[in-house]
Design goal:
The chain is mainly β and 356 residues long. The chain folds into three domains: 70 residues, no CATH class; 133 residues, Lipocalin (Beta Barrel); 86 residues. The protein is built from one helix and 28 strands.
């Protein structure tokens, strides 16, 4: 007798399987419930300042669940310089970008908006909540901010962040950096070849422009051409220091805007870089070459420290001078980060605090 074929065979097997699966005590095992990974909150350091109110670290807060990351704003923390223990903390509903310390110890957080925190009172003000990083200059003459996307606009503000008079719309291309001192408000801007004003993102290109403006009114006093993409601008030691994409640090007279010295640094193509000026002179940080120390008296590059002693697999992205030490933020490819206390004489890490 031949075995049944065609549709009859399929019906027979289907009937047998149905009977087996529905019979008492017989069947396929019930599937185990899939356990989802519990979300983990991570704070990844982005910037650091060290001043009159201590060492403060700005971190981006993310909720990690499996391969996905969810932005949970930013966190501002004061750490013990000896142990790294968190002494105080502010949680902010802004995506982190940069941290600026102003006079009287005010802390400005910029990213997807602008916030200001007063460490002495614990008061936090959310100034703006737009998706645009904002530059801040807070010094003796007052407080100025600038938008880094859209139209080039500068605004004078009160200590709580509220505008002090109407915003000033600038002609030309976008703002890249701000610095403020008794001698003026200094505005570094993109030059020809940059994205036109009004675009969503500022793309610097061509020779940059440096302006000196009245620190009280914002009125233009002087304008000169500087190196390409002058994205870093710091006042210190009686000079204005500018760092552009040509890897040249320029020393500039704050009154005349004349470049008095140039320091040519290694070109690494790294997107991470920073400039700080302490009592012992400027330091240029670059993820490609480490830390370059400038001797302002001899007007020479004193040393380039390539092995900074930071955590293995992490690159330096931000630097800040302190009273006794230099502080550097290191970041890895993922959310890992560390804040390192550096020896001010050698620029080598003395101790790193991985939890920021």
């Amino acid at each position: 007798m031949h075995a049944p074929t065609g549709p009859m065979w399929g019906v027979t097997i289907g009937a047998v399987l149905a009977g087996l699966l529905t019979a008492p005590g017989i069947g396929l095992p019930a599937p185990h419930p899939v356990r989802r990974a519990q979300p983990v909150t991570l704070a990844s350091a982005l910037d650091v300042v060290a001043g009159t109110t201590g060492v403060w670290v700005l971190a981006q807060v993310s909720e990690v669940q499996g391969p996905s990351f969810t932005d949970r704003g930013s966190r501002l923390q004061r750490i013990d310089p000896s142990t790294g223990r968190v002494l105080r903390r502010f949680d902010l509903p802004l995506s982190a970008g940069y941290l600026t310390q102003g006079r009287s110890g005010r802390l400005w957080v910029s990213g997807s908006g602008l916030a200001v925190a007063d460490p002495r009172t614990g008061r936090v003000e959310i100034v703006t909540a737009g998706a645009c990083e904002t530059l801040v200059a807070d010094s003796t003459p007052g407080i100025w901010t600038a938008s880094t996307c859209g139209l080039p606009i500068i605004t004078r503000r009160r200590s709580d962040g509220r505008p002090l008079g109407p915003a000033i719309r600038l002609r030309g291309h976008g703002v890249l950096a701000l610095a403020l001192g008794v001698g003026g408000l200094y505005v570094a801007r993109a030059g020809k070849g940059a994205t036109p004003p009004g675009s969503a993102v500022v793309r610097p290109g061509g020779p940059g422009v440096l302006e000196r403006r009245d620190p009280g009114t914002g009125r233009l006093l002087r304008r000169v051409t500087v190196g390409p993409s002058p994205a870093k601008l710091v006042l210190g030691g009686g000079s204005l220091w500018s760092l552009g994409s040509d890897a040249i640090l320029r020393r500039i007279d704050p009154a005349t805007l004349r470049t008095t010295a140039r320091f040519r640094l290694p070109r690494t193509g790294s997107e991470w870089g920073d400039l700080s000026v302490g009592l012992d002179g400027p330091r240029v940080l670059d993820a490609g070459f480490g830390i370059a120390r400038i001797d302002p008296r001899a007007e020479t590059i004193r040393r380039i420290r390539r092995d900074t002693g930071g955590p293995r697999g992490m690159l330096p992205i931000a630097i800040a001078p302190g009273r006794r030490h230099v502080w550097v933020v290191f970041r890895g490819d993922g959310p890992g980060s560390a804040v390192c206390r550096m020896n001010a004489d050698t620029d080598v890490a003395e101790r790193c605090f991985p939890r920021s």
